């Protein structure tokens, strides 16, 4: 049974009333008419377990906002909302989740080309919330209730583009056209879609039968039914703030990467402009000021100049800290396997006199430093460890090689005013997400038993590797959808079952991680990585120590076997694995209770079954988690 809402749904007019008129001029908002006091709710982000939620697909707690819902169509709205997420917080707490990452909250284009904006990445109005998910009261209450349960909330944002809000009037007739030109003999055949024309480095040009006629003007939509409307706030209605170069064809070309429209007609914003930088700081900082949420996950960061992220991250930190919100976490998504590229958004930028930092427009604001984001979504590890090793059984030495890069490819100093942790120490780790097939889809041709063993082994890696684990919603229910939108299933179809083996496995891993500080905050050292993948004695073995974190529970040793055929052990041709633990120390597996002893020469021999792992801690530190 769905419990009743505390308040009825608020119309846009009432939201504007609450925002613009004095207290007492509107309805009784039962305490939510006041701007919340911003608070700092987190000590160390490495202690957190993030759960990524696609709000529309998680839980439907308020039928009053169920419009345009088509449950049988994977690319349309399905009815999930913030009320439903609030209702299911006990489910998430039992799973061991401490932080919710929710999909974007601002008002979107309703539908485009028979696909809805249920995901949140097609912004139309940055000053209003998406009414499909609820109102400001519902969002604030979700944050408040989460905080009462010692949980945090991260909000997904986009600063690279807006939705499909205008077309290029290439033929100057005032209508959005699709046309074929050329006969293939005297002239090339060209297909032109004025909503999504191909990239032109000069900018999209207009032309008539007489030839080119200069830059094509843009015309904003005016269709309230699908919310193809001019954007808000007003700065986004200025044609000059868009790069207007058309659809990116090759992401390896820097001009297209940074200035092209995202395929599908998402219009690229000129993020080098001061008015754009300031507008994005204002609209997104204001959402935090209205809700008291705790962080941002930032979409498509590699499509935006580094100078923007320097400006945005620092000005947001400063504005929120002045009102009481510190340790505000900002991590970005660059869908790319190149660790140097992903990590570059966390490094300090060298001074560049050619960059305009908008200091003149920010009277009294501190001078900008080289700091950028606090962290990044660890896509290189997704490709090189999750996919290559834990799904495909490739050599584990590639994980070691990747981890050894991070001190040079990621920032090694905590950004000023940030979360107090060097970015290289806090990557955001994941097995899958809304942009890639689910983990189980990648191993769908194997037996169900093998699929589960591979998933649970990868989950041990996720919960023990340095950084913050991020679990994609539904992994605990063994969802197995392929590419978007098949990987965006309705969680309510599972009944939120808490008895399944994978749910219980994840909950246990969360308890283990919480019990042993070294698994959360400890330094890492790889103690064994293998180049072998066949029948060799150590094929598939990967081991690492975590040391430090607190004075107690300051040592752990994780050994994983990714080999899908046989048990392997931490030795090869007579060589044994050295560890930093003292000789004679008894280590106990927090998963099974089995014990291993460090030999007199400081080595340890650990045998691990295929597709399995051990989490070893000193026997004297063992905590009863039952």
From TrEMBL:
GO MF annotation terms: alpha-amylase activity; calcium ion binding
GO biological process: carbohydrate metabolic process
Catalytic activity: Endohydrolysis of (1->4)-alpha-D-glucosidic linkages in polysaccharides containing three or more (1->4)-alpha-linked D-glucose units
Enzyme kind, highest EC tier: hydrolase
Record flagged with keyword Hydrolase: yes
SMART domains, per database record: Aamy
Pfam (any one): Alpha-amylase
Keywords assigned: Calcium, Carbohydrate metabolism, Glycosidase, Hydrolase, Metal-binding, Signal
Domain (Glycosyl hydrolase family 13 catalytic) ranges: 52-513
UniProt EC number: 3.2.1.1
Required cofactor names: Ca(2+)
TM ranges: none
Domain of life: Bacteria
Signal peptide stretch: 1-28
UniProt xrefs under PANTHER family: ALPHA-AMYLASE 1, ALPHA-AMYLASE FAMILY MEMBER
Family indicated by similarity: Belongs to the glycosyl hydrolase 13 family.
Name of this chain's protein: alpha-amylase
Classification of source organism: Bacteria, Pseudomonadati, Myxococcota, Polyangia, Nannocystales
């Amino acid at each position: 049974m769905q419990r009743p809402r505390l308040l009825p749904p608020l119309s846009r007019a009432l939201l504007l009333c609450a925002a613009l008129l004095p207290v007492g001029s509107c309805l009784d908002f039962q305490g939510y008419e006041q701007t919340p006091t911003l608070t700092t709710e987190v000590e160390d982000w490495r202690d957190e377990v993030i759960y990524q939620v696609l709000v529309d697909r998680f839980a439907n707690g308020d039928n009053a906002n169920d419009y345009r819902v088509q449950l049988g169509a994977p690319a349309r709205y399905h009815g999930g909302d913030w009320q439903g997420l609030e209702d299911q917080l006990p489910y998430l707490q039992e799973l061991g989740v401490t932080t919710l990452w929710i999909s974007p909250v601002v008002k979107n284009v309703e539908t485009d080309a028979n696909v809805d904006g249920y995901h949140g990445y097609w912004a139309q109005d940055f000053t209003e919330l998406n009414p499909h998910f609820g109102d400001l009261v519902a969002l604030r209450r979700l944050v408040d209730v989460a905080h009462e349960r010692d949980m945090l909330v991260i909000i997904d944002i986009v600063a690279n583009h807006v939705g499909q809000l205008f077309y290029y009037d290439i033929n100057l007739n005032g209508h959005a056209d699709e046309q074929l030109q050329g006969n293939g003999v005297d002239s090339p055949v060209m297909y032109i879609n004025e909503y999504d024309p191909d990239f032109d480095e000069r900018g999209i040009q207009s032309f008539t039968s007489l030839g080119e006629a200069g830059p094509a003007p843009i015309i904003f939509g005016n269709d309230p039914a699908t919310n193809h409307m001019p954007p808000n706030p007003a700065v986004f209605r200025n044609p000059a703030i868009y790069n207007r170069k058309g659809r990116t064809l090759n992401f390896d070309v820097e001009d297209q990467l940074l200035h092209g429209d995202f395929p599908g007609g998402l219009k690229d914003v000129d993020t080098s402009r001061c008015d754009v930088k300031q507008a994005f700081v204002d609209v997104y900082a204001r959402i935090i000021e209205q809700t008291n949420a705790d962080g941002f996950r930032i979409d498509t960061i590699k499509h935006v100049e580094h100078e923007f992220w320097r400006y945005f991250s620092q000005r947001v930190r400063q504005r929120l800290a002045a009102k009481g919100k510190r340790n505000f976490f900002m991590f970005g998504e660059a869908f790319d396997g190149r660790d140097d590229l992903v990590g570059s958004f966390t490094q300090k930028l060298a001074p560049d006199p050619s960059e305009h930092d908008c200091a003149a427009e920010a009277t009294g604001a501190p001078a900008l430093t080289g700091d950028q984001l606090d962290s990044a979504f660890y896509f290189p590890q997704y490709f090189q460890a999750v996919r290559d090793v834990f799904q495909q059984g490739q050599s584990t030495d590639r994980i070691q090689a990747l981890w050894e890069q991070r001190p040079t490819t990621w920032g090694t100093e905590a950004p000023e005013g940030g979360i107090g942790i060097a970015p290289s120490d806090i990557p955001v780790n994941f097995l899958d997400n809304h942009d890639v097939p689910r983990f189980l889809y990648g191993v769908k041709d194997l037996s169900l038993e093998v699929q589960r063993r591979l998933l649970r082994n990868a989950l041990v890696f996720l919960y023990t590797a340095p950084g913050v684990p991020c679990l994609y919603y539904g992994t605990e229910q063994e969802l197995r959808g392929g590419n978007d939108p098949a990987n965006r299933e309705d969680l309510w179809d599972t009944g939120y079952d808490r008895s399944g083996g994978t749910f219980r496995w994840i909950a246990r891993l969360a308890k283990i991680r919480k019990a042993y500080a070294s698994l959360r905050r400890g330094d890492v050292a790889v103690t064994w990585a293998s180049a072998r993948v066949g029948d060799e004695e150590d094929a598939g073995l990967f081991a690492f120590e975590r040391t430090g974190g607190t004075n107690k529970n300051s040592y752990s040793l994780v050994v994983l076997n990714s080999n899908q055929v046989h048990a392997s052990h931490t030795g090869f041709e007579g060589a044994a694995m050295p560890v930093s633990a003292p000789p004679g120390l008894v280590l106990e597996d927090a998963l099974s209770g089995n014990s291993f002893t460090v030999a007199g020469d400081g080595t340890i021999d650990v045998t691990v079954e295929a597709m399995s792992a051990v989490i070893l801690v000193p026997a004297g530190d063992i905590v009863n988690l039952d």
